[in-house]
Amino acid sequence: NDSPQASVSLATDKLTVSFGPGVGGAYNLTLSNNGVAIQSTSENNPPQIELGVDSIQLQVGDSKITIENTGVTINASSFTVTCGDSKLSMDGQGISTQFQQASNTINQQGHSLTAGENSIAITNENITLTAATLNGNMEAGEKIQTTIRNMIADATQNIQAALTQNIN
C-alpha cells in the first residue's frame, strides 16, 4: 500500500513517530535519552539529523558533519566550499583553493601556485618558476650553491652589487 501512514511507537527507552508511504520514503522522529533523531527510511544508509546532548550530526550516505563545542568535523569523500569567486576543494587526491585567476593546489605530485600566467611548482624532484616579471629584494646575504647552473636570458640582465663576487 503506497498511501501515507502514520504510527507512534513507545518503548521504555524511546518514542518514535513515523509518517510516510507504506513502501519506502517514510520519515521517523525518535526521542530518546541520547537526544532527537530525524531520519528518512528511503535508503540502506538514510539521510538523518541527530541532536544530542553536546553535538549535532548531519549525515547523508557516508558523508557526515558533526558539530561539537570543541569544533566541527567533516567526514566525506570530497568537500567543497564556494563563496562568490572563492572556492576551496578537498578530496582524497589533495587540496585546492581558487580565487578568480589565482589558485593553490597541494597533492601527491607537490605544491603549485598560479596567478594568471605566473606559476610556481614544487615537487620532490625540482622547483619550476614561470613568471612574466621576477622581482626580488634581499635585506641580508644570498648564498647559492649549485651542481649545475644554466642561465638563459632573452633580454638583458643588470646586476648591481656593493661588493664584488668571487667565484672559485
Task: Describe the protein in words.
With 168 residues, this protein is mostly beta strands. The protein contains no helices and 15 strands. It has strands spanning 4-10, 14-21, 27-32, 35-40, 48-51, 55-60, 63-68, 71-75, 78-83, 86-91, 94-99, 102-107, 110-115, 118-122, 127-130. The protein has an eight-stranded antiparallel sheet with strand order 1-2-3-4-5-6-7-8, with no helix packed on it. Strands 9-10-11-12-13-14-15 form a seven-stranded antiparallel sheet, with no helix packed on it. A hairpin with a 4-residue loop joins β14 and β15. The mean pLDDT is 86.
Give the secondary structure arrangement, pairings included:
Blueprint: E1 4-10, E2 14-21, E3 27-32, E4 35-40, E5 48-51, E6 55-60, E7 63-68, E8 71-75, E9 78-83, E10 86-91, E11 94-99, E12 102-107, E13 110-115, E14 118-122, E15 127-130
Antiparallel strand pairs: 1-2, 2-3, 3-4, 4-5, 5-6, 6-7, 7-8, 9-10, 10-11, 11-12, 12-13, 13-14, 14-15
